[in-house]
Amino acid sequence: MTTARPGGFRMQLSAPVYQLKRRAKAMSRQLGVALNQTLDQLAREEGFKGWSHLAAALADQSPARTLFERARPGQLILLAARPGHGKTLMALELLAEAVNAGHQGVFFTLEYTQQQVEQQLEAIGQSLAALGERFVSDNSDNISADYIISRLAETPAGTVVVVDYLQLLDQKRENPDLLNQVKALKAFAEAKELIIVFISQVDRSFEAADQRAATPGTADVRLPNPIDLQLFAATCFLHDGTVQINTTG
């Protein structure tokens, strides 16, 4: 019998780190100074010597690192949150963890342009140049299970793949239904020993309701088309800086 292993994280800051990064970026543009200066300024306001000190202090409790360490080749992972709660940033942090560990990281996005991907990387202290050839970003309008499988035919085992995002995969009528696409990607992940992470939306009813939980759960995932969430070996839910990771097995 498998049991869920929960992992909860809370950043001990005045705001979630992704919000601090966005604030620093806005300040940088407004004041006409380098981003590293505004990052350092906000870090000092949080009680750290600078941004590098803050980042080092948070590194050991990084949810992206924890998720990467728990993930196993052949698994599908669901990464879900309401808009603006940092799910894309965490997905990119996960890819950076994979690249830094010597693996390839591939980001398929139906949501962002290449320029926006670069901006998101900048917000987590990364860049295309720093990640190098092991990181690939693909924003084709043709992204679907068949497209992903074709693009990754020669990718090595251990590659971490992020799909942004789940609910957009079957927006084109010519694509198979969402459930069959996820099943196809699960079979492909198992055969190629890949880790595939799906960014997912959470229904807005979660924020409208009188919440008892700090984070959403599987019942809050927005599913305009039916899908079996048991296909995912792990789930990661984010809300207001709290991260809840559950893995099975």
List the helices and strands and how they pair.
Blueprint: E1 5-10, H1 17-31, H2 35-45, H3 51-59, H4 63-70, E2 76-81, H5 87-100, E3 105-109, H6 114-123, H7 128-131, E4 135-138, H8 145-151, E5 160-164, H9 178-192, E6 195-201, H10 205-208, E7 234-239, E8 242-247
Parallel strand pairs: 2-6, 2-7, 3-4, 3-5, 5-6
Antiparallel strand pairs: 1-8, 7-8
Helix pairs in contact: 1-2, 2-3, 4-5, 8-9
Protein described:
- The chain is of the alpha/beta class.
- It has one domain: 3-Layer(aba) Sandwich (Rossmann fold), CATH 3.40.50.300.
- The chain has ten helices and eight strands.
- An eight-stranded mixed beta sheet has the order 1-8-7-2-6-5-3-4.
- A hairpin with a 2-residue loop joins strand 7 and strand 8.
- Helix 1 packs across helix 2 and helix 4 packs across helix 5.
- The longest helix has 15 residues.
- The N and C termini lie close together (8 Å).
- 40% of the residues are buried.
- The N terminus is likely disordered.
